[in-house]
Amino acid sequence: MRTPKDPTSPAATAAALLPLLGGPANITSVAHCMTRLRVGLRDRTLVQEDALRALPAVLGVVTDDDTYQVVLGPGTVARVTPEFEALLTTAGELAAKGAGLKEVRRQRNATPTKLLLRRVANIFVPLIPALIGCGVIAGLNGLLVNLGCLPSLTPALAAIASGFMALIAVFVGYNTAKEFGGTPILGGAVAAVIVYAGVAKVTAFGVTLAPGQGGVLGALAAALLGTYVEKWCRRWVPEALDVLVTPTLTVLLTGLVTLYALMYAAGELSTAIGSAANWLLATTGAFAGLILGGLFLPVVMLGLHQALIPIHTTLIEQQGYTVLLPILAMAGAGQVGAALAVYVRLRHDHSMRTTIKSALPAGLLGVGEPLIYGVSLPLGRPFLTACAGGAAGGAFIGFFAMLGDQVGSTAIGPSGWALFPLLAGSGGLAMTAAIYAGGLLTGYVVGFGATYVFGLGPSVRDALSGAGGGVVTGAAVSGVCDPSGSQENARGGNRTP
Description:
Layout: H1 10-20, E1 27-32, E2 36-41, H2 49-54, E3 60-63, E4 68-71, H3 76-91, H4 96-109, H5 112-124, H6 128-147, H7 154-166, H8 168-179, H9 184-195, E5 203-204, E6 207-208, H10 215-236, H11 239-301, H12 309-319, H13 324-328, H14 330-345, H15 350-364, H16 369-379, H17 381-402, E7 407-409, E8 423-425, H18 429-455, H19 458-465
Antiparallel strand pairs: 1-2, 2-4, 3-4, 5-6, 7-8
Helix pairs in contact: 1-3, 5-8, 6-7, 8-9, 8-10, 9-10, 9-11, 10-11, 11-12, 11-17, 14-15, 14-16, 14-17, 14-18, 15-16, 16-17, 17-18
């Protein structure tokens, strides 16, 4: 195999990663999310972690119950993963035996809550690129409409931006059936009932249904029901009739239940979610923003943020934007402020300052993993002061929501400065952008100030800069709390939520 000429190319990065992860025989599975290459390993002791972290393309590593995750950043990971998989295919070492070992480990370590959240993520995370792309186009279209520019083009942009959202229920149904072991296309078929215009002729519980009623929640429920109906049919329908009877019964029975029960129930639930979010911000906006912005970093660290994805998607379906994401994005602003304070205080720790300089641009664009797991968590206190910055930024945006100026995002995924093209709200684009920018500035300032004053005790400063600098692990610094409850997160390096 030829060595790629460009050492920073996706092929070169994949070729460098494989031996450091223990070689093809040590890999049992490969996947990726927005920022991380996720690999299953037979033996984690074969990983050359120090050399792995030293690769230019690697922002950090994460150890999970059933995967080893290499943080490569958005965009990069999507290009490196196919090259990595191609190397494994060529080597022919991705054995079924390793997958079996991974499954045993997963079943042993996974709790019901983690399994549920992981499945929710598997359903919705693949939709995020389309949500981002359509969201950016919607934001551009809104800007052109407000400025009165290109009136002949804006209807086309509106159609492009709205097409995916009009059919998102179908994609949710497809992914749900795939995740729960059904036939994906049947999941999409039963979910398509929800968005079909003809449902306007159907009445359930005395109420005429509307196309799209129930949204992604109804689609998820319909596809899940369809999967169980399909599995039941597979057990009882004779093989000779299976190809005809099973799909028919799956679509028919599930479709009827969807029309006469699920759409109504999911519609009521979706409406309740939207009403609750609006009431929460309109009534207790500053306090709600304080709590949401302050607790989001720990929620991400525990992996519980995946439960918010269906809520964000529901709000985008209902209102055109989610009012929760800009508030939660303030946690990243607090993290940036905390990192800047560490950079200023630890003047002699060249290693830590280099880490911060490398990770700060990504943090400003909403990719906070390197700062969280390379700076604040290993030091302990800065993680808490970063949360304080997030709480202040969230309270700022929540306060304006109480005044009637809501700030929302037309898509989920980006945060930080990268969220500006996706902003939408009740007060117009200029006001919405100004409030969001004010929240970011508040998060930066409070995160910086809290960390500068309270974030670094004397023992930390002595350990890090008393002898000329150098990275120190959380275990080596006396008096530093470990918010994660384990030393694993305090080993230095980065970890991605």
